[in-house]
Design a protein that fits this description.
The chain is an alpha/beta fold. The chain is built from ten helices and ten strands. A hairpin with a 3-residue loop joins β2 and β3.
């Protein structure tokens, strides 16, 4: 096992497992964790394994972007972070493996975008999902627009993004946002899922994935560029500043559309 400060990486040549390991912060994504996740996915891309499991340690998969990182005004750092985010999503989406994300609690904002980059997304019954950028005057990044549209259609994607509300696992499953709800312990599910996949014709599954990706990947790349530019604009709006201030003061934001 390879372990950075915030990410654990395990690989036996057949199965790769990446675990977000910042449980005291609900695996929220600061720049350090993002850089480590990018490295882990680069390692995974070189591995001969056919299965990748992505999960989070502790009570959440990922609570989204770290608020301290969002407060950072350094444009060079923003450029570096958003490039890393886009690399993470592009690599995860295009891996020549069957990828499974297990949501063991909250998956919010960028954390949800990353989860949806996987082929299969499963959640425990108590999981809460939210594409909640709108609450701080931002737009989804990490391919959030792309993955939501692909999974639930344009109209539902706009509704989920604009409302930013929390979705319980059952509602997310009914909507098509996740594939299944795990009734057993998450570790037991992972073992069972690995056994099931190992008995499947994995190379045929991966070939289908590759064929579908070839038409979709250019669209994902375009979406990531549009999100990068759109997010840069939103970071300078008064609504975003109000959203951050309200979040820190634990009150309802008063947006003015500017």
């Amino acid at each position: 096992m390879k372990e950075w400060k915030n990410v654990q990486y395990e690989d036996n040549g057949k199965i790769t497992k990446i675990t977000l390991n910042r449980p005291d912060k609900l695996n929220s994504l600061n720049d350090e964790l993002l850089y480590e996740l990018e490295k882990a996915l680069q390692e995974a891309a070189k591995s001969p394994s056919s299965i990748l499991i992505l999960t989070g340690k502790g009570k959440a998969f990922c609570a989204g972007g770290d608020i301290k990182m969002m407060l950072e005004e350094d444009e060079a750092l923003y450029e570096s972070v958003i490039t890393t985010i886009n690399n993470i999503v592009s690599t995860l989406y295009s891996l020549k493996k069957v990828t499974v994300c297990t949501i063991n609690g909250a998956a919010a904002g960028l954390g949800l975008s990353i989860a949806l980059a996987c082929d299969k997304v499963v959640a425990v019954p108590t999981a809460i999902l939210a594409m909640n950028f709108i609450g701080i005057g931002l737009i989804p990044d990490g391919g959030g627009h792309f993955f939501l549209k692909n999974r639930i259609g344009e109209a539902n994607a706009k509704r989920i993004i604009w409302e930013g509300k929390k979705l319980h696992a059952k509602e997310a499953k009914e909507l098509g946002l996740i594939d299944s709800i795990v009734e057993s312990e998450i570790d037991d599910f992972i073992l069972a899922e690995i056994k099931r996949l190992q008995l499947a014709p994995l190379q045929a599954m991966i070939e289908t994935k590759t064929i579908l990706q070839r038409t979709e990947y250019p669209i994902l790349e375009q979406m990531l560029l549009l999100e990068k530019e759109g997010q840069r604009k939103m970071r300078h709006t008064k609504d975003h500043q109000e959203g951050i201030k309200a979040f820190l003061e634990k009150r309802v934001p008063h947006f003015k559309g500017c």
